[in-house]
Specification:
It holds the Pfam family ACOX_C_alpha1. InterPro entries: ACOX_C_alpha1, Acyl-CoA_ox_N, Acyl-CoA_Oxase/DH_mid-dom_sf, Acyl-CoA_oxidase, Acyl-CoA_oxidase_C, AcylCo_DH-like_C, AcylCoA_DH/ox_N_sf, AcylCoA_DH/oxidase_NM_dom_sf. Its cofactor is FAD. This protein has a domain of 165 residues: Beta Barrel (Butyryl-CoA Dehydrogenase, subunit A, domain 2), CATH 2.40.110.10. The protein contains 23 helices and eleven strands. By secondary structure, it is of the alpha+beta class. Helix 9 packs across helix 19, helix 10 packs antiparallel against helix 12 and helix 10 packs across helix 13. The strands form three sheets. Strands 1, 2, 3, 5, 6 and 9 form a six-stranded mixed β-sheet that branches. A three-stranded antiparallel β-sheet has the order 4-8-7, with no helix packed on it. The structure holds ligand L6B7KVET and flavin-adenine dinucleotide.
């Protein structure tokens, strides 16, 4: 087995214009954090207790069992190693790689819901147990018949003041809870979203803490039906489940009562906003923005390294086969997603910091930031997961045939990450939530209100510049202005369409539906403007080393120009940009790709994914792809024997029969 680095990759690294460690530092927030990250990753990746057969060779049941064992071990080790809460994600992502795990919902939603929705007494009762994994919970909201439309949930929690209990019921087949991660086989508790009824009156969806399995033998409690929903497109390592209740009684104190309350006599105490009950989803949406940047970065790392190792065809007669990354069409497939990975990585950081600031404010009782936080996280969640989806698939196809093999790591990455466009709010629905906020803000600005935050730009619509003006389409200020103008114009046009539909006699819901394609377009443009502006702003950081600010500026330019050329109609329609501008933009893209080409490998190295996390034969750091492809294939279960048992069962008699008939 070759121990040295593939010569093509070696040369790529020698020829790059900067030290990737500097960008790694920038991406992770400083050298100390990078050091910590690498220590924790190395600890996890070199721990023999976490080693197991490739998941691609396992059944769904084996994948679940392997991951359950591994995740429980991880919890124990995290405790033993006393890893700081803030650093645990480094260790965790090295342990689980690109796979979800059966405790993901416990850590990602069950605990956060207790932090965010439980009263102090409830925290005192449950948090210690949940934090120490003495109980395991999930977030059970979606039902077979309703995921998107929360107000349409059918599960009921009916208050009985005589016993001071809630009676939990699943009235129909469509009311079965469906999908919650870790529900199928792992969890013994859940946060249940159910319609609250008191004295026959409905108060909408509320969160309840419900025990579903015995703490003694893990059997479903009386009145509880629970199980796994079966194989999925990906997520084999997780037991997504179904759940139904037949008049199960829980104490009054099990409704999470930080905001809404039910008094013993059945008096309902209203929350400051009914949407506070949706708080955990907002947090996860913000996390999905971070995750989208990371998964795209992984896919691009695999495809870029492989494209430097892979040599194919003949560019010049008689010359050696070139590295496929030297084909400009290959660069055009990968570099825009390389740039997008950087853009979303940085957007994710900003989104998390907005989330932290706003949620601190909200938990102190000031809910003024809630609408902006919801609109921003919904739009960015949708945009980033959509781009990551398309980008992962583009990267897979850019790896030719080998991209289709599980050895590439790309099919599994895609299958596990593509639900990000669906879960935690289906993307179109999320964009329409952002559009709702944009319409409201736009109308406020028409009434002379000064807007703040991500919609501040809607206050002053820019004029279309005079014809004949030339622009430098590489100037990030010019590009940000163009995105801002496009977003403001599309918001304006969606608002006009909405108004026209109303004036034509439609009621508000029908008008909204009729205008919804334009509304989604406006929300997309708004979110894209945010991403481009955020990228450009991060480059103004005066502490940024000049050797890396040049290459990051190129990526930012490429990201903005590629989006502009792809959506050129939006920029041209009202004459804001001219055909000359767009032609110039296209030429700049080609020039930028040529400049980025020598730095491509260093730019993906800078994401700093160790091989154990990438889990890809094609994306290996050392580039020794071919020998490891063969080794990987040999490990396939079908190759355990030279002659498979099915030969004796089926093939042999079939062949013998055919031969006998000759
Ligand atoms: C030991 C090792 C440690 C390692 C540590 C590391 C741990 C990391 C672990 C991370 C793992 C994470 C794993 C997570 C995996 C996720 C799996 C997926 C889970 C799920 O999918 S859960 C289910 C999600 N479901 C949804 O998202 C449903 C989507 N639907 C909705 O949100 C609502 O129904 C919808 C569409 C918003 C509509 O709501 P509705 O009530 O009908 O509202 P209206 O449209 O009428 O609007 C009314 C009004 O409310 C505003 N609004 C709506 N939502 C919100 C909100 N969330 N916040 C604030 N405001 C909101 C809306 O804008 C309207 O405002 P107006 O002012 O216009 O009236
Ligand atoms: C892998 C995975 C894990 C999950 N984990 C969990 C979990 O742990 N807990 C949990 O509770 N749930 C979970 N879910 C469920 C998930 O949250 C829902 O599937 C998601 O919210 C989408 O809802 P839906 O399935 O009802 O889609 P639907 O709403 O039925 O979407 C179908 C189509 O209808 C369109 N549509 C729906 N409403 C509108 C509208 N108002 N305007 C325009 N178009 C509309 C959508 O855009 C989409 O194209 C998980 C799902 C998956 C795939």
């Amino acid at each position: 087995m070759a121990a040295t680095v593939n010569p093509d990759l070696k040369k790529e690294r020698e020829n790059s214009s900067f030290d990737p460690n500097k960008i790694t530092s920038f991406l992770y927030g400083g050298p100390e954090i990078v050091k910590k990250k690498r220590e924790l990753e190395s600890l996890a990746l070199n721990d023999p207790d976490y080693q197991h057969e490739d998941l691609n060779f396992m059944s769904q049941e084996q994948q679940y069992e392997t991951f359950l064992k591994k995740t429980l071990l991880m919890v124990t080790k995290v405790r033993e190693l006393k890893i700081d809460v803030a650093d645990r994600h480094f260790y965790r992502s090295a342990v689980i790689g690109t796979n979800p795990d059966p405790l993901g919902l416990h850590v990602g939603m069950f605990l956060p819901t207790l932090y965010g929705q439980a009263s102090q007494e409830q925290k005192d009762k449950w948090l210690k147990m949940a934090e120490n994994f003495a109980i395991i919970g999930t977030y059970a909201q979606t039902e077979m018949g309703h995921g998107t439309f929360l107000r349409g949930l059918e599960t009921t929690a009916t208050y009985d003041p005589t016993t001071q209990e809630f009676v939990i019921n699943t009235p129909t087949i469509t009311a079965y809870k469906w999908w919650p991660g870790g529900l199928g086989k792992t969890s013994n508790y859940c946060v249940l979203m159910a319609q609250l009824y008191i004295h026959g009156k409905s108060y909408g969806p509320h969160p309840f803490m419900v025990q579903i399995r015995s703490l003694q033998d893990h059997k479903p409690l009386p009145g509880v039906t629970v199980g796994d929903i079966g194989p999925k497109f990906g997520y084999g390592s997780v037991d997504n489940g179904f759940l139904a209740f037949n008049n199960v009684r829980i104490p009054r104190e099990n409704m999470l009562m930080k905001y809404s309350k039910v008094e013993p006599d059945g008096t309902y105490v209203k929350p400051p906003s009914t949407k506070l009950a949706y708080g955990t989803m907002v947090q996860v949406r913000a996390n999905i923005v971070v995750n989208s940047g990371r998964v795209l970065a992984k896919a691009v790392t695999i495809a870029t390294r492989y494209s430097c190792v892979r040599r194919q065809s003949e560019m010049k007669p008689g010359h050696p086969e070139p590295q496929v990354l030297d084909y400009v069409t290959q660069q055009y497939k990968l570099f825009p997603y390389l740039a997008a990975a950087y853009a979303f990585w940085l957007t994710g950081q900003t989104m998390m910091s907005v989330y932290t600031t706003s949620s601190n404010q909200i938990s102190k009782g000031d809910i003024s930031a809630l609408p902006e936080l919801h609109a921003l996280s919904a739009g960015l969640k949708a945009l980033s997961s959509w781009v990551a989806n398309v980008g992962m698939e583009e990267c897979r196809m850019a790896c030719g045939g080998h991209g289709y093999s599980h050895a590439s790591g790309l099919p599994r990455l895609y299958a596990n990450m593509t639900p990000g466009a669906t879960y935690e709010g289906e993307n179109t629905v999320m964009m329409l939530q952002t559009a709702r906020y944009l319409m409201k803000s736009y109308n406020q600005s028409l009434q002379g209100e000064k807007l703040a935050g991500s919609v501040a730009y809607l206050s002053g619509v820019q004029p279309v510049p005079a014809a004949g003006r030339t622009r430098n389409m590489l100037d990030l200020g010019v590009l940000c202005d163009a995105y801002r103008h496009r977003a403001a114009r599309l918001v304006h046009e969606a608002a006009v369409q909405l108004r026209n539909e109303r004036q034509a006699g439609k009621d508000q819901p029908d008008a909204w539906n009729a205008a919804s394609v334009d509304l989604v377009k406006a929300a997309m443009a708004h979110s894209q403007y945010f991403v481009v502006k955020n990228f450009a702003e991060r480059l103004t950081d005066s502490t940024l080393d000049s050797s890396i600010s040049d290459v990051l500026t190129r990526l930012c330019q490429l990201h903005a120009l590629h989006g502009l050329v792809t959506n050129s109609g939006d920029f041209l329609e009202d004459g804001y940009l001219t055909g000359t501008d767009v032609r110039q933009a296209r030429r700049h893209i080609n020039a930028l790709m040529a400049k980025l080409r020598p730095d491509a490998v260093a730019l993906v190295d800078a994401f700093d994914f160790p091989d154990g996390i990438l889990n890809s034969v094609l994306g290996r750091y050392d580039g020794n792809v071919y020998e490891h492809l063969l080794e990987w294939a040999k490990a396939s279960p079908l190759n355990k024997t030279d002659v498979h048992q099915s030969y004796h069962k089926y093939l042999k008699p079939f062949l013998e029969d055919n031969r006998a008939k000759l």
